[in-house]
Amino acid sequence: MLEGKVLALSISKEKGVPKENILEVRVIENFGIEGDAHAGLWHRQVSFLDVYTLEWMKEIVGRPLAYGELAENVTTDVDLSQVKVGDLISAGECLFEVTQIGKKCHHGCAIFQRVGKCEMRNRGIFTKVLKGGILRVGDPVKILKRG
């Protein structure tokens, strides 16, 4: 499925701590989510993770994971396994470009220490904000394939 909705929005004021769930965020073009420590002038402004990864992780760590616990900003019910670098993600009134899939993870990272495993390194989707606006839990999400 390449259409779905935003299940959760999560931000943190500093890196390396669990993100807090909130009902709506202000997304700033070419910057990220207002108030989130990962926002800035770089290629990983907003991160996405699908609920299927969280369910898979539950089996591995032996407990449910909270939305935002793997440091994702946007949790969605869209299957992100089909997404490629360069694809666009439309969410609410915002538009994101996929810039990276997965990230280098070290065993000393805060997520790994808390959870024991981190799938952001394989399944996390990182994006740059092409169009900002307000994004709310429940807003529609659509993947726009390129090439």
Automatic annotation (TrEMBL):
Residues 20-144 form the MOSC domain. PROSITE patterns: MOSC. InterPro entries: MoCF_Sase_C, MOSC_domain, Pyrv_Knase-like_insert_dom_sf. One of its GO terms (molecular function) is catalytic activity. This is MOSC domain-containing protein. It comes from Caldimicrobium thiodismutans.
